[in-house]
Design a protein that fits this description.
Blueprint lengths: L2 E6 L4 H32 L4 H6 L4 H33 L2 E6 L10 H7 L1
Helix pairs in contact: 1-3
Length: 117
């Protein structure tokens, strides 16, 4: 068989939280921003125009939402990574299978080391 089994023992909680936060915020930009803008345009044509004007026509809601959700997502994923590390420590890690493509484990990171020299 041409697979390599490695065991995940720990993740960097801050790095995990940053990656998860940026991923979720990118999805929010794609999905929620158009919905907010459409809701703002529809609301402006209704009796709710004053309320949407106070919110900057949806612009304030978009900026505030991204900041607020970004902070919440970062905190939640940071805690999730800490819990994951605790569980990985108690269970002995998570075995993961990778396909071998001609790269030996000892060669991992060699390009990085060669670039530094």
């Amino acid at each position: 068989m041409n697979t390599l089994t490695l065991k995940l023992k720990k993740v960097d909680p801050v790095k995990y939280a940053i990656i998860a936060t940026l991923t979720y915020l990118a999805i929010m930009l794609i999905l929620i921003v158009p919905i907010m803008l459409i809701g703002s345009a529809v609301g402006a044509s209704q009796d709710l125009a004053g309320g949407f004007a106070m919110l900057g026509g949806g612009l304030f809601a978009i900026v505030f939402g991204l900041i607020f959700y970004g902070i919440i997502i970062f905190i939640v994923t940071l805690v999730a990574a800490l819990v994951l590390n605790f569980i990985l420590k108690k269970t002995g890690g998570l075995p993961m299978d990778f396909e071998k493509n001609g790269l030996d484990v000892g060669q991992i990171g060699q390009d990085f080391l060669n670039e530094k020299n």
